[in-house]
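Standup notes
- HV: blocked on the assembly model, inputs below
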Amino acid sequence: DTEVTQTPKHLVMGMTNKKSLKCEQHMGHRAMYWYKQKAKKPPELMFVYSYEKLSINESVPSRFSPECPNSSLLNLHLHALQPEDSALYLCASSLQISNQPQHFGDGTRLSIL
Amino acid sequence: AQSVTQPDIHITVSEGASLELRCNYSYGATPYLFWYVQSPGQGLQLLLKYFSGDTLVQGIKGFEAEFKRSQSSFNLRKPSVHWSDAAEYFCAVFTGGGNKLTFGTGTQLKVEL
């Protein structure tokens, strides 16, 4: 059983919709991450939060908007997405931002119509 | 820049046979290295990690890996493969001063019964 919980597991949305992905962990980790994974490819880092503050943004388009309301929760707000944004979105957490193993959730499978 | 390379895209082994998945790293100092496994439709599970010390690292599910500085390698091994080991395996290294996890391209393992 994963200790990082992501909801929903699947999401289908139109290009004009607004939706949010949610990630939760109760391991006391202070670093949280969003990754994007296309089929047959490795995960690619999108955002990193450390102590609820955005630490790294890997030049992600503004149609993706992350939010970390507290140390256990991480959201990814989606708006006006493109078909090429269809992918598996993975959340991860680690004890600290530097040199600590990351623990992944099972992901949200996102499809853009 | 620090990176990892997984030379084998696909590997097929018979159940009960031994397994070795290759990973080569490019890094000046001692790298922090990981092996993750991803089953279809799921997130990534940490198998094992190497930070320093003993170069033979034991992980979960009967896996082990050996860090060889002279060969810049961190190969994953298992003495007897089970059908449930069929999955995608990713080698990864910390980059960006330890703030980013960079993955290899992955090796797809197929297990023949």
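- HV (later): unblocked. The longest strand of chain A covers residues 18-25. The mean pLDDT of chain A is 94.
- Next: hand off to the docking folks.
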